[in-house]
Amino acid sequence: MSEPRCPTCEEHPLLEDIEERDVGFLGCTTCFGLFVTTDALGEYVKNATGSVGVRTAYHALLQDALDHLAGQSKRLCPHCQEPMRRMGFGEHPLVILEHCSLHGVWLDKKELTKVLRASRADAKVKGLDEGEGEE
Ligand SMILES: [Zn+2]
Ligand SMILES: [Zn+2]
Predict the structure, then answer these.
(1) What is the domain partition of the chain in residue ranges?
(2) Can you give the pTM of this predicted structure?
(3) Who's near 17: CB < 8 A, 6+ residues apart?
(4) Distance from Cα 109 to the centre of ligand 1, integer Å
(5) How far is the CA of 81 from the centre of ligand 2 (A)?
C-alpha cells in the first residue's frame, strides 16, 4: 500500500486530509498544495461563492481546459504515481494546474483562490452569477 505523498516537495511528505467548506482535500502542510477530485473542486467553488452559476462556469472552464491539455508535468499523481498533465484553467491570467485523468487535480498554494476568481469572472461574463451586481 502506498499513501498519497506531496508531488511537489523534495521530501514528498505525506498528504493530510483537510476539509475546506465541507469538501475533502488532501493537503501538504509544507508547501500548502492541495489535491482534490474535479467534482469536489466544483462543490468547493459552489460552497465558497454560494452560487450554483459559478460552479456551472467552473465546469465549463474545466471542460475547456481538459480539451486542451498541455504537456506532461514532472510531478506525479499522489495516488497512482503517473505523471500528471499540465492544464491551463480560465484565462487572463491562465491558472496552470496539474491533472491526473483518474484522480483529480493538484493545486499549488494560492491556486485555489485563482480557480475561484477565474470561475467567478467567467460566470459574470456569461451572466451565470445570480449573486451581486445585476445590471
Ligand atoms: Zn508539499
Ligand atoms: Zn492518478
Answers:
(1) 16-126
(2) 0.92
(3) 24, 25, 26, 27
(4) 9
(5) 6
